[in-house]
């Protein structure tokens, strides 16, 4: 269930609830760029998220350049957005608030 592709209306609900996130052009990934006050904060954010991601066995596509972290969440096995991507996006929002 958690790894099943969400419908377009379910995906629309995610970005309504998480307005800093958007959907990529193909409709298969959730996108967000975080900007932190320091490189240390960006890495602290990534470290916390990485531990959670590994725990739920669901891993982000992301890139760090100095104080920014570009994130794309997708479920590779489903070729699209699933509940796992929504859960990870919510978790990232909580972690980012603390960094
Ligand atoms: C075997 C293991 O459960 C899978 O390879 C997991 C690992 N992490 C994953 N992460 C993401 N984003 N999508 C997946 O399909 C996925 N699959």
Give the strand order, joined by hyphens, for the main sheet: 1-2-4-3
CATH second-level architecture: 2-Layer Sandwich
Q: Count the strands?
A: 4
Oligomer: single chain
Which distinct ligands sit in these coordinates?
Answer: the ligand C[C@H](O)[C@H](O)[C@H]1CNC2=NC(N)=NC(=O)C2=N1
**What Rg do the Cα atoms give?**
13 Å
Helix fraction? 40-55%
**How many domains, in number, for the residues?**
1
Structural class: alpha+beta
Total helical segments:
3
- N-end to C-end Cα span: 32 Å
The CATH homology group name: Transcriptional coactivator/pterin dehydratase
Largest sheet: 4 strands, antiparallel
Low-confidence stretches: none
Instruction: Kindly report the average pLDDT value.
Output: 97
Please identify the top-level CATH class: Alpha Beta
CATH fold category name: Gyrase A, domain 2
Shape: globular
Q: Strand percentage, roughly?
A: 15-25%
Helix/strand order, N-terminal first: HEEHEEH
EC number: 4.2.1.96
InterPro entries: PCD_sf (IPR036428), Pterin_deHydtase (IPR001533)
Catalytic activity: (4aS,6R)-4a-hydroxy-L-erythro-5,6,7,8-tetrahydrobiopterin = (6R)-L-erythro-6,7-dihydrobiopterin + H2O
Enzyme class: lyase
Please tell me about this protein's structure.
The structure is a single chain. The protein is an alpha+beta fold and 99 residues long. The chain has a single domain (8-97), classed as Transcriptional coactivator/pterin dehydratase (Gyrase A, domain 2). Helices cover 42% and strands 19% of the residues. The chain contains three helices and four strands. The protein has helices at 8-17, 39-55, 83-97, and strands spanning 22-23, 30-35, 61-65, 68-73. A four-stranded antiparallel sheet has the order 1-2-4-3, covered by helices on one side. β1 (22-23) and β2 form a beta hairpin. α2 (39-55) runs antiparallel to α3 (83-97). The longest helix is centred in the middle third of the chain and has 17 residues, at 39-55. It starts with 7 loop residues before the first helix and ends with a helix. The model has no long low-confidence stretch (mean pLDDT 97). The structure holds ligand H2B. Ligand H2B binds next to loops.
């Amino acid at each position: 269930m958690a790894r099943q592709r969400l419908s377009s209306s379910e995906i629309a609900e995610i970005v309504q609830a998480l307005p800093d996130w958007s959907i990529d052009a193909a409709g298969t990934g959730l996108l967000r760029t975080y900007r932190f006050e320091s490189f240390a904060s960006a890495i602290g954010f990534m470290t916390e998220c990485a531990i959670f991601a590994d725990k739920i066995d669901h891993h982000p596509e992301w890139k760090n350049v100095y104080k920014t972290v570009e994130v794309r969440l997708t479920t590779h096995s489903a070729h699209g957005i699933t509940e796992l991507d929504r859960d990870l996006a919510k978790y990232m929002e909580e972690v980012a608030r603390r960094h």
